[in-house]
Amino acid sequence: MNIILKFIALFTAFMIRPAGMVLTHFKCRNGMYPRSAIERFMVPDDKINWSVEYKEYKPPNHTANSIHGKPWADPKIGDPNFKPKWNALDKNVNRESYTGQYLIQDRYPLNPVGRTGICGRGVLGRWGPNHAADPVVTRWKRLLSGELELDKNHKPILQFVAIKRGDTGEWALPGGMVDPGEKVTTTAVREFQEEAINSLVMSEDDKKEWEEKFKSFFSNGDEVFQGYVDDPRNTDNAWMETSAYNFHDDKGDVVGALKLNAGDDAVGVQWVDAAHDIKLYASHEDIVKEVLKRRLLAIT
Ligand SMILES: *[C@@H]1O[C@H](CO)[C@@H](O)[C@H](O)[C@H]1NC(C)=O
Ligand SMILES: *[C@@H]1O[C@H](CO)[C@@H](O)[C@H](O)[C@H]1NC(C)=O
């Protein structure tokens, strides 16, 4: 009986873990740290977990000069005016992790997944979790006639709005950091507007009409993922976490009707086919695959 219950518990634990909920990391381990000449200390797979001893571990300590004094960045640890409340909502800065309680070692929060080969906070503003929101705006690909285009398995093709990142050139979701006190869904919509819509050339009247349509469209998002992100910027003491929401335009007549151009932060913004072999920035790949899975299930 016990064994059967254990098996069921294990099975359901596996089933309900959202896609992308990585308990290990690859993109923030080994190799060069982004926008720096600093190489991460080598961390083999079996030495990621903090509870595994790694005596030789001496990661370089790096906090980018560019973040000091920025309004979105924390002060240095040890600064007498900086009294962070870890694992809590600290005034309006969310220092809670979706992964549960993270550890604090010698005043520094520890990455909940494990070693990354670099300490300090790199280019990230916050010590501990840095919260982002990623909107996944989707539509079905259509022929000029308006009919759904089908793939070779006679399945409709899902498309999502992607931006090309200026720094890495990879396709990514048009997400961004959650401002202090901001609701995560608000961030998702704001970032989508800033990164994907701002560039659109249209009259003031047209803009107003679209804004009205967007308001109701963006009020219905499905949460598809919440958790740690295997982001190349992560360090031992600072890491990315995200909430991803899917906003789906089934008929293709609201956001789906938009022809998209480049926005401020991006060198390109496009409708991209969501395929099983898609390659995207950080954990965005798992998020898009999860959306694809759910959307295809919803029609069959
Ligand atoms: C990293 O460097 C900063 C500033 O140079 C220092 O205050 C901090 O204690 C160092 N952290 C570690 C873990 O050595
Ligand atoms: C690290 O190892 C401990 C002890 O075995 C385990 O409880 C924990 O879940 C592991 N952490 C991760 C992120 O896998």
What layout of secondary structure does this protein have?
Layout: H1 2-16, E1 61-63, E2 89-90, E3 93-94, E4 104-105, E5 108-109, E6 119-122, E7 128-140, E8 158-165, E9 171-172, E10 176-177, H2 184-197, H3 204-217, E11 222-228, E12 238-249, E13 266-273, H4 284-299
Parallel strand pairs: 1-6, 7-12
Antiparallel strand pairs: 2-3, 4-5, 7-8, 7-10, 8-9, 8-13, 11-12
The structure holds 2-acetamido-2-deoxy-beta-D-glucopyranose (2 copies).
Short description:
The chain is an alpha+beta fold and 300 residues long. It is built from 4 helices and 13 strands.
Tell me the quaternary state. Answer: single chain
Distance between the termini: 36 Å
The chain-level mean pLDDT equals 86
Indicate the overall shape.
globular
Percentage of helical residues?
10-25%
Strand fraction equals: 15-25%
By CATH, the topology of the domain at 131-298 is: Nucleoside Triphosphate Pyrophosphohydrolase
Output the structural class: alpha+beta
Rg from C-alpha positions? 21 Å
Task: Tell me the number of helical segments per DSSP (H or I, 4 or more residues long).
Answer: 4
Query: Mind telling me the CATH superfamily name of the domain at 131-298?
Result: Nucleoside Triphosphate Pyrophosphohydrolase
In this structure, how is the largest beta sheet organized? 7 strands, mixed
Architecture of the domain at 131-298, according to CATH?
A: Alpha-Beta Complex
Number of strands: 13
Give the class-level CATH name of the domain at 131-298: Alpha Beta
Q: List the helices and strands in order.
A: HEEEEEEEEEEHHEEEH
Q: Are there runs of 5+ residues with pLDDT below 50, and where?
A: 1-22, 262-266
